[in-house]
Design goal:
The chain has 385 residues and is an alpha+beta fold. The chain contains ten helices and ten strands. Among the domains are: 41 residues, no CATH class; 103 residues, Tetrahydropterin Synthase, Chain A; 77 residues, no CATH class. Strands 3-2-5 form a three-stranded antiparallel sheet, with no helix packed on it. Strand 6 and strand 7 form a beta hairpin.
Length: 385
Amino acid sequence: MAWNEPGSNGNKDPWGGGNRGNNQGPPDLDEILANLQKKFSGLFGGGSSSSASSSGGGLGMGLVIALILGLWAATGFYKVEEAERGVVLRFGAHVATTEKGLHWHWPAPIESVEKVNVAERRQIPYKATVLTQDENIIDLQGTLQYKIDNAEKYLFNVRNPEMSLNHAIESAIRLSAGQSKMDFIITEGRNEIAFRIQRTVQDIVDQYGTGISVIEVNIQDVTPPQPVRQAFQDVIQAREDKQRAINEAEAYRNEVLPKARGAAARILEEADAYEKEVVAKAEGEAERFNKLLTEYSKAPQITRDRLYLDMMESVLNNSSKVMVDVKGGNNLLYLPLDKLMSRGGADKAPSAANLTDTQQRELLQEVTRLRNQQAQGSSRSREVR
């Protein structure tokens, strides 16, 4: 049954218009506002009078609004780390860039903050099949490391900076590989190709204004196409064998040459020493001959005998028995060196330098006696004839 249906029990007017009998007109607007005011005053502790209820309701509404505004304003605080940059946007437009610390901005939906890490080293892998200068196809695989250098450019200048960076990497690889031959790229040219790629990519992203700084480009693998890969591996192995043989030859040369130089220097030193020895000996012999000549001029006979003894000593140094054939005679003379040795107590033939003066005189007398016997034998043989 409707609230205003005739015959209903009581007044069920939801607007609180009271019992108006059978009046079917719309409720009074003033009554509706009064009823709402009463309800709000009751919620916030309204008083008994209508004026107190009106003032209490206004104060409660103000507190609620202030609390809501405070909570809304508190959402505007944000913290930026040391490695980050905070890009403040006001209705989508860039207004400021903040660094590390605690900051505040107008809360949403007025302003928002985009935090960008500018110290993180990011990495993008790449793999490309390119054509070289000598019209060969190779597969390059590696990584590119970069970081964000400018947060504003990174967020606003390019819609998708990573995609643009991938396109730049592919273009740089094709350009750098197209300017070099395959053998150079596969063997010793990796570092140079990586440097070219890095420089080209940096130029491209700078032209786009992406705010990206390329740190390093690494080429991890460079391989020829699958059908000819084994042949290229054989070529590379042969080059490595060649280089190893060269290194071994260099090591052998470095080992042999110092020894040869040392041996040559030793031979030169020995020759120089031999030269000095021979010269010194010759000078000594000459000096000795000059001294001997001086002594000979003073006593020729004694000097001749002494020279004779020295010569006999050098000839008969290792002999203890000597047989002397007298010229013009039939008898052999015997020189008693054994007796002289026993007298001197030596185990070998006496040396003129080691004989005492007495032994030298006895030896000289013995030699003189033998000469006299030889002379007498010669005279007797002439008389008999």
